[in-house]
Write a structure and sequence with these properties.
With 651 residues, the protein is an all-beta fold. It has one helix and 52 strands. Helix content is 1%, strand content 49%. 26% of the residues are buried.
């Protein structure tokens, strides 16, 4: 095969390279009827100009001589021929090349063949792309006319990044001087000339919220002796922001408010994209984290924000220091806000106010009473303290403190059915209704608001407390502690003329209960009764008929008081009678076992209790048993008895 190359150079946007492959063999090897194609000798080189104004194509000629009939064709549609066949003689084909609007080079072939399977001539045309040899596009195709981009924040990914598409006919390299910027290159498509370059800013190395890096793209073309450098700018331009919200409402100032624990606080959500500090805190203010731990240092500075550049939320508690509690207000505090990397940006100060507690402020701290029962709200005192109290006898004493804007009075009221009554308790007042408890002040201490310490003293329980009620000493007793302004001059001022607590004092008292003395229980089950028939307890077992029914529990001894002792029916008991601290599952509990025996316990008018065991009918001919069931006093503290119920099978 005979080969000839044509190299067609373009001055501007497009150039064509032609490689003409002509092949022939000796005349002796071909039929005399074969058509031979021979290109003209002056086709070794041609120069093409840029398309004329408004034109969309470039043209050139292919000249050749044929000894017979011939045909010509192209491999791609962007080449067209003005002649595609002919006879013997000299010929010129005008080739039209459409404009290449892509950056990538493209290649096509023109084949001129004679008849009788004569060896064809193949012309290879290579057309280069558009003028731009290295251009930038954003991933959606929009170009960057100023050869720059601004990185974007991805808060979820924790990244500051951006991607640009680089399109070039030539290989290129990247150089970045700034240490805070890195890059990654990936393929953008299958055309071989497009690549994506992703830029990443390292938050740890950024020194401010506004930075700019110079990126150099260097490439060398076949027609240029020296490399070409294209500059590209990558920018970080993040606006530092901080907002404060209370109950989803954005605020720039707030007042500390009294909470259920009588502290003056405000819970504030801080949303920011930078790490900063509050400064200029007044001496009366402390800032705490959500766990209540102070984050304020000795110089009155408190940090906020989890990271620079990325948005985060933080819950802070702004609190009045205990020693600065006052009836009068303080001057509002303007907290200065400064960012670690925000430069000279000035943020709007956060204004914090304390409007004073007021003269009617009263706060009672009863932590000295011990743990409060979360179910009924009572603080529990033991039955006996065995401490000699001056002029009071033996008792138990626990401390509480009162902070108040003015002088206060303390009153004790007897509680009945979980409600304060107008029965006045005061062990130092002969005019009181009962004398088993009293409040005694301790020496006062002062802060901005006076803090007064007191002792609540309850007398020890003793067995003969009431000659009218032999069980009185074993019953709990209850009182309500009121701490009220000294304008409430007497105990009676807490109640209306009908003896009912005035509405303004509802929920303004502390509930206290005192345990009774331990009781020597007498609770002996004799058997079960149904329709006048008693099914006796023998050797730890009660046998009942298959028909079942509602059986009354027959007791031989019973000193259980419903109010004082409580009573529960339990199953699967593993302890022994009169064992304290045994824990089981009561029949009325949601997780009681699936048993054919259920218990109903009620209190009688005389204070005693009675019980009914409902036993379902046994439909099976086989007997069944409920083993180790029985009664427990004082809501599970002491096991009184246990037995097994055997129910006969159906006959």
């Amino acid at each position: 095969m005979k080969t000839t190359f044509f190299y067609l150079k373009a001055m501007f946007a497009a150039c064509l390279t032609l490689a003409i492959f002509a092949a022939c063999s000796d005349d002796d090897d071909k039929s005399s009827l074969s058509s031979k194609i021979e290109l003209s000798s002056n086709e070794s080189e041609a120069v093409l100009a840029k398309p004329a104004e408004g034109a969309t194509a470039i043209t050139f000629d292919i000249k050749f001589t044929a000894t017979g009939e011939w045909k010509a064709k192209t491999s791609h549609g962007w080449l067209s021929l003005d002649k595609k066949r002919g006879t013997a003689g000299e010929h010129t084909i005008l080739v039209t090349v459409k404009e290449n609007k892509e950056v990538a080079n493209r290649e096509a072939k023109i084949t001129i063949a004679g008849n009788n399977n004569a060896e064809p001539v193949v012309v290879t045309v290579v057309q280069h792309g558009i003028d731009a040899e290295l251009v930038f596009n954003t991933p959606d195709g929009d170009g960057n006319s100023d050869n720059s981009m601004e990185l974007k924040i991805n808060n979820e990914a924790g990244s500051i990044a951006g991607t640009v598409e680089v399109v070039s006919n030539y290989d290129w390299t990247v150089e970045i001087a700034e240490e805070w910027l890195s890059y990654e290159i990936t393929e953008a498509g299958d055309n071989g000339v497009s690549k994506n370059i992703s830029f990443y800013a390292d938050p740890q190395k950024l020194s401010s919220f506004s930075e700019e890096a110079s990126v150099s793209f260097t490439y060398k073309s076949a027609t240029k002796a020296t490399p070409v450098v294209v500059s590209y700018k990558v920018k970080v331009n993040i606006v530092p922001t901080v907002t404060f919200t209370v109950n989803d409402e954005e605020i720039s100032e707030f007042s500390l408010e009294r909470d259920i624990d009588d502290n003056f606080k405000k819970i504030v959500t801080v949303t920011s994209n930078f790490k900063g500090i509050f400064s200029d805190l007044p001496e009366w203010l402390v800032i705490e984290n959500i766990t209540g731990e102070s984050i304020t240092d000795q110089e009155g500075i408190a940090p906020f924000g989890e990271a620079d550049f990325f948005t985060s939320e933080q819950t802070l508690i702004f609190s009045l220091k205990d020693e600065y509690l006052d009836t009068e207000k303080y001057e509002p505090a303007s907290l200065k806000i400064t960012g670690n990397k925000t430069g000279e940006i000035e943020f709007t100060p956060l204004t914090v106010k304390f409007n004073g507690a007021g003269n009617d402020y009263i706060s009672v701290n009863a932590e000295g009473f011990g743990q409060q029962n979360t179910e009924n709200g009572y603080y529990t005192f033991e039955a006996e303290g065995n401490t000699e109290i001056d002029d009071f006898g033996k008792g138990i004493s626990k401390s509480f403190s009162v902070k108040a804007g003015d002088n206060t009075n303390c009153y004790l009221a007897k509680m009945v059915n979980n409600r304060p009554t107008n029965t006045y308790i005061n062990g130092k007042d002969d005019n009181a209704d009962e004398w088993w408890a009293m409040v005694r002040p301790k020496p006062a201490t002062r802060s901005k608001i006076e803090s007064q310490e007191y002792d609540l003293i309850l007398k020890d329980r003793y067995i003969y407390e009431s000659p009218m009620d032999p069980n009185a000493a074993s019953k709990k007793r209850y009182l309500a502690l009121f701490v009220v302004p000294n304008t409430v001059e007497t105990f009676a001022d807490l109640f209306d003329e009908d003896g009912e607590l005035l509405p303004e004092y509802e929920d303004k008292f502390i509930k206290v209960e005192q345990k009774g003395l331990k009781k020597n229980y007498e609770f002996v089950v004799k058997g079960l009764s149904l329709g006048g028939t008693i099914y006796e307890l023998k050797d730890g077992n009660i046998t009942v008929p298959a028909t079942g029914g509602e059986f009354q529990v027959v007791l031989e001894a019973n000193n259980i008081d419903m109010e004082t002792d409580g009573l529960g029916f339990y199953y699967r008991i593993t302890g022994e009678p009169y064992q304290e601290g045994w824990d089981g599952i009561a029949s009325y509990a949601p997780d009681a076992p699936d048993s054919f025996v259920t218990a109903t316990i009620k209190g009688n008018e005389d204070g005693s209790v009675s019980s009914t065991l409902t036993i379902t009918e046994n439909e099976s001919p086989s007997p069944r048993t409920e083993r180790s069931c029985g009664f427990v006093a004082d809501t599970g503290n002491e096991l009184l008895c246990k037995f097994t119920i055997t129910q006969k099978g159906k006959e």
